[in-house]
Each structure stands twice: as structure tokens, then as C-alpha cells.
């Protein structure tokens, strides 16, 4: 490969790409990881992670919990319908991605989910602010323990990931840490029913969208159906690979990097014929974080493409537009 080609390959996504890169965290030094992360996130904004040090039993536990939750009768799930803090059960066809920059989305998503966010205790000064309130739990023995154990492990890994991410962007290795002392996190236990045979072409389990925050680390079952948009507008499948997580850059991280890392649109159609389960973990900065283009991602000829934004404001605007329950009048 000539030097010019090599340079191009690190900055321009290869339109003919047939698969996403897999980055292994087994015995890799931070500098190597940083290089691989930079390449993947600059190219297509998506990759797989393997060997991230999370016990298989934790993964099996969270999927088992999700299945137990979703097979319950609808009334049991509605008993913990999503509260104004964005926690609880989100019924099918109650989210429509009106803020999609990708497509005119007209149909609500054909999926249901249980949403868990960072816990905010009543004695926490943040308690009661928008999106800072209590989680809701189903009446299922062992459910909470399994879900919290997985969430804790994902949080630990995500904190460790901050260093190679900072190095990849030529920042001091602990640069991101202060933004994540009180992170905004979402663990979503998603269930997709089989895609209806007569469904319209533009009906999706998850319509084309980008994620809002910093980074998303998703574990999927063996059904398949997730697709990632290439820069030429075609869609690349992100099929299940045992022992891996699918990872993507979200809007705030893309904005922080002045677009060097891409917040890539993705979508889901569950064509497996059976139920599909996935568990995305959204690891985002504290609500009060100001996201302003990084000093290392701007300079002469690379002026900042976005003004500074407070993450909590950006997030609220998105949620208010995309979720039906947020459009109802507040209960008295
Ligand atoms: O279920 C999936 O594979 C993707 C889910 C997703 O993109 C999301 O919840 O933001
Ligand atoms: Fe997503």
C-alpha cells in the first residue's frame, strides 16, 4: 500500500467496507488501543470490542433478566410505565425519532424496552432535576441484582476506556475523567418482536438514528438485524459475533472531536423470525458538562463547527421530541 493510500485509509471511510473492525482489549497497551480506536471512529464511527473483561455470567444474567421482564403480561410492565425521569417501561410504538437527521421517520419504533439510568438518591443535590430521579423496578426476584451487576461492570469498563480515548485525541490521559465523575448512563433492555411480513418498507424495530451522548456499548443476542450507515449511504450489517460488543461514537463525542469521529446512523429490523433482545449501555458525561470542540481537534483551517453546548440541554431537547410520554401534560 502506498503512503498516500495509507493516509487516505485512516481518514476516509472505505465505501466498500464489508465488515466492522474488531478491537481486542486483551493485553493491549493503551497506545495501541488509542491508535485502533482513532482509526475505527474516524473511518465509520463503529467497531466491535472483544475481551473487555466482563464475565460471561453477567451478560447471560442481564439477557435472562430482560427475557423475564418482557414475557410478563402487558399490565405488569405498564405498572412501571416510564416516569418523567426517563426510567421504567417503554411500550412498543411510543418512540418516534423525529430528530433523525438521517431520514424522515414517520413510524414509531416496533420495540419495547426497560430503561435504567444512573441512580440518584433522594439526598443527592441533583435529585428532582430533569432526568435525575428514581429508577423503577419490576416485581421479579433477582432482576434488580442481575441488571445492576451488569451495569456496574459496564461502568467500570467505560471508565477505563476514557484513557485510550483521550490518548487517541492527543489529550492528557485523564482529560475526560472530570466529565464522568457523575456520568449520565442508560442501560436499555430492548425487545424486538419479529418483523411483520407485511410491514411497510419504512417500518423498523429501531428507525435510522444517531445516539445522543458520548459512547454506546451494545450487547446483542444471535438474531442480527443491526445495520450501520456507510458514508455513501449504503447499509452495512453489524452481525452478532460471540464475545463481542458493538460500540459507536454518539453525537456529543463527535461534536467534541469537531466531527473527526463520526456519530454514525444505525437502524434495526428484526428479520430473524423470532424475538430479538439487545442491551445497549449508553455512557455519557454529566448533565452539567459543557461540550466544546477539543483544542486538539481545531486549529488553522479547522475552525470549530459547533458552539459549546451543555449536554443536559441537548439531551432534554432530544428526549422531549422523540418520546410520546414526554409530550403528555405532567401529572399533578
Ligand atoms: O438494538 C440494537 O441493536 C440497537 C439499539 C439502538 O441503536 C439504540 O437503542 O440506540
Ligand atoms: Fe442507537
Automatic annotation (TrEMBL):
Q: Which PROSITE patterns match?
A: FE2OG_OXY (PS51471)
A GO biological process held by the record: ethylene biosynthetic process
All copies of the Fe2OG dioxygenase domain together span: 183-285
Keyword flag Nucleus: no
Q: Which UniProt keywords apply?
A: Ethylene biosynthesis, Iron, Metal-binding, Oxidoreductase
The cofactor(s) it depends on are: Fe(2+)
Per the record, the pathway is: Alkene biosynthesis; ethylene biosynthesis via 2-oxoglutarate
Which EC numbers does the record give?
1.13.12.19, 1.14.20.7
Q: What PANTHER family is this protein classified in?
A: 2-OXOGLUTARATE (2OG) AND FE(II)-DEPENDENT OXYGENASE SUPERFAMILY PROTEIN-RELATED
Is the keyword Iron in the record? Answer: yes
Q: Which Pfam families match?
A: 2OG-FeII_Oxy (PF03171), DIOX_N (PF14226)
Reactions catalysed according to its record: 2-oxoglutarate + O2 + 2 H(+) = ethene + 3 CO2 + H2O; L-arginine + 2-oxoglutarate + O2 = guanidine + L-glutamate 5-semialdehyde + succinate + CO2
Give the source species: Reyranella soli
Q: Which GO terms describe its molecular function?
A: 2-oxoglutarate oxygenase/decarboxylase (ethylene-forming) activity; metal ion binding
Please state which protein family the record places this protein in: Belongs to the iron/ascorbate-dependent oxidoreductase family.
Q: What class of enzyme is it?
A: oxidoreductase
Q: What InterPro entries does the annotation carry? A: DIOX_N (IPR026992), IPNS-like_FE2OG_OXY (IPR044861), IPNS-like_sf (IPR027443), Iron_ascorbate_oxido_reductase (IPR050231), Oxoglu/Fe-dep_dioxygenase_dom (IPR005123)
Protein name, entry field = 2-oxoglutarate-dependent ethylene/succinate-forming enzyme
